[in-house]
Amino acid sequence: MQSAYVQLIYGSGLMSKDKQNGYEEAGGRFFCFPKGSKRTVPLLPPVIKVENLTHVYAPGTPFQVTSLDNVSLEIAKGEFLAVVGATGSGKSTLVQHFNGLLKPTRGKVTVCGRDVSDKQAGRTLWRKVGLVFQRPEQQFFEETVFDDVAFGPRNMGLSRDEVKERVEDALRLAGLDPVQVGQLSPYRLSGGMKRRAAIAGVLALRPEVLALDEPTAGLDPQGKRQLLDRLENVRREWGVTIIFITHSMEEVGLLAERVAVLNRGRLAMIGAPREIFSRAEELRGMGLDVPVPTAIMDRLRAAGNPVRTGILSNTEAEEEIAKLLSGAAST
Ligand SMILES: Nc1ncnc2c1ncn2[C@@H]1O[C@H](COP(=O)(O)OP(=O)(O)O)[C@@H](O)[C@H]1O
Ligand SMILES: [Mg+2]
C-alpha cells in the first residue's frame, strides 16, 4: 500500500515517476508524503530526528536560559528545510545540535540513525553534518584560501591528490576559481567571496547534511541570489540535505520545501511555505512576516478580487495581477 502514500514532490524536470513501485525519484532521492495530507512523512528513516529536545544554557546558575523547549521534528534526506524565528528564538541552538556541538539537556537528537550524545558517534559527526556558522568569514585561520578549505579534508587523512580535488571542487561549487583565489590570503577577498570561501571549507568535507546559519545575512541582493542558486545546485548534484536559517521570508518562499518556525524556544509551526504563510496573523504575533507578494495578494483578495492565495513569489503575483487586469478589461 506504499504507493497510496506517494505524491509528486518537485515540480522540476528532475522528477521521474516510477509507477512500478509507486516511488517518485528526484535526483536519486526519494520522498514520500501521505496522499492528501500536507504533513510530510518520509518513508525512509529521517536523516535527522529531533525528539523532545530541550536545551538549557548555564543550568543551575543565575544565568540559566531555556533556549529550546521540547522540540520534535524530522528532516528527510535531500530535503531543503528553512528555519525561521525572531532573534533569540533558538534557531542557532537547534542547528548546533545537528553536528554535536551542543548536546541535549533533555530529549534526543539522532543523525543518520546515531544518537549525537553517544561519544563514538560524536567523533565522526563533523564530517556528516557540515555547519556553516553565522558570519563564517570571521573564522579563517590559514594563510591561503586553499589551505583553509583543505583543513577538513587533510584531517580526514586523505592523500594530497584527493585533498586537492576536494578543495578545487568545493571552491568551484561555491563559485570561486581555484586558480585565481587559491593562493590568496582569505582576508584579501571581498565580503561575498569570503563567505563563499568559508562555505567551500564545509563543502570540502562532502557532508550529507549542510546546515547554514543565516548564510545570506549581510550580502547584497545579487550576492544573496547567487549563493542561494549555488546551494540549490549543491543539493541537486549531491543529494545533500540542506537546513538553512534565515530572516528572509522571500528566501523561504523561493527555495524551501518546508519551513520550521521557532517561537521562544518552541516549535510553533512546521510545513510547506504556502501553508505557513497562510497563517500571517500568527506569524506577525511572533515578530515575523510573510513575503511581500504574499501579503499584497492576500490584501487584494480580502478586498474582493478573485486572485489566488498562497502566492510566494513576484512572478506568481505578476501572473495573478495580469489575469485580474485582463479580466477587468474584458468586462
Ligand atoms: N552560549 C550561550 N549562553 C547562554 N545563553 C545563550 C547562549 N547562546 C544563546 N543563548 C540564549 O539562548 C536563546 C536562544 O539563542 P539562539 O539559539 O542564539 O537564538 P537565535 O539563533 O534564534 O537568535 C537566547 O535567549 C540566547 O540569549
Ligand atoms: Mg542565531
Automatic annotation (TrEMBL):
Domain of life: Bacteria
Subunit-level organization: Forms a stable energy-coupling factor (ECF) transporter complex composed of 2 membrane-embedded substrate-binding proteins (S component), 2 ATP-binding proteins (A component) and 2 transmembrane proteins (T component).
GO cellular component, one term: ATP-binding cassette (ABC) transporter complex
Similarity remark: Belongs to the ABC transporter superfamily. Energy-coupling factor EcfA family.
Its membrane topology: Peripheral membrane protein
Keywords carried by this UniProt record: ATP-binding, Cell membrane, Hydrolase, Membrane, Nucleotide-binding, Translocase, Transport
Function: ATP-binding (A) component of a common energy-coupling factor (ECF) ABC-transporter complex.
Record-annotated ABC transporter domain positions: 48-289
Name assigned to this protein: Energy-coupling factor transporter ATP-binding protein EcfA2
UniProt GO MF annotations: ATP binding; ATP hydrolysis activity; ATPase-coupled transmembrane transporter activity
Location(s), subcellular: Cell membrane
EC number(s) on file: 7.-.-.-
Alphabetized InterPro entries for the sequence: AAA+_ATPase, ABC_transporter-like_ATP-bd, ABC_transporter-like_CS, ABC_transpr_CbiO/EcfA_su, ECF_ABC_transporter_ATP-bd, EcfA2, P-loop_NTPase
PROSITE patterns noted in UniProt: ABC_TRANSPORTER_1, ABC_TRANSPORTER_2
One Pfam family here: ABC_tran
Keyword tRNA processing tagged: no
